[in-house]
Structure formats: structure tokens, C-alpha cells
Amino acid sequence: xxxxxxxxxxxxxxxxxxxxxxxxxxxxxxxxxxxxxxxxxxxxxxxxxxxxxxxxxxxxxxxxxxxxxxxxxxxxxxxxxxxxxxxxxxxxxxxxxxxxxxxxxxxxxxxxxxxxxxxxxxxx
Length: 124
What we know:
Largest sheet: 7 strands, mixed
Order of helices and strands: EEEEEEEEEEE
Low-confidence stretches: none
Helix content: under 10%
Distance between the termini: 40 Å
Number of strands: 11
Radius of gyration: 13 Å
Strand content: over 45%
Number of helices: 0
């Protein structure tokens, strides 16, 4: 059974940092792009960041550019999201996802597998 399990969420003050992890099991995703998305209450799920299968290329939403860093460890089948300078508007449930191809996309439809999400709350 394929599973993506996020961890590392929590409550943090504005300006603080969190590091999210996403552990994959059931199959390897070493040859798939991986991504992070988020969904705030009452809003649609939105793209945060994506990384290619080999980690050589990344992309970010404008809203997180320069503050968030995506990375992966294929040996551990794990995806990460380092979040710095957090803002209250970053509050959301964060989801990791495994892409259909090696190169990734900002579109939700390009991802086949999803985790259950981890809550990130940033207080002002």
C-alpha cells in the first residue's frame, strides 16, 4: 500500500520556522517529481513548491519564494519543506504529493499520490 505521511507541522509565531517532512512507503518515488501544496480554511488547495526527481530543479509559488526551501533524500524516500520567516497567511494544512512524471508541475492534476496533510498554524 502506497503511503505518504507528512510530519513537522505545528503552531509557531510569525517570523519563526518549521521543517516539514514527508515519508513515502509502499514504493519508491525516486523517479517521480514531488511537491508540496496547502489548503487554508475556505480556500482551494494551492501549489507551494515542486522538485524534480533528481533534485536538480525546484519551483515555488510567488508567495513563498525566498522563504521556503524544498529538498529530497531519495535514499530515505523522504521529501522536506523548510519554512522560514513564516507569516500568518501561511496558516494551512500542508500536503505532500508524488508526481506522475519526473519533472513536476504546479497543477494538482499532475500528482497521483497525496498524504493526509499536516497542520501549520502561524500566530501573529
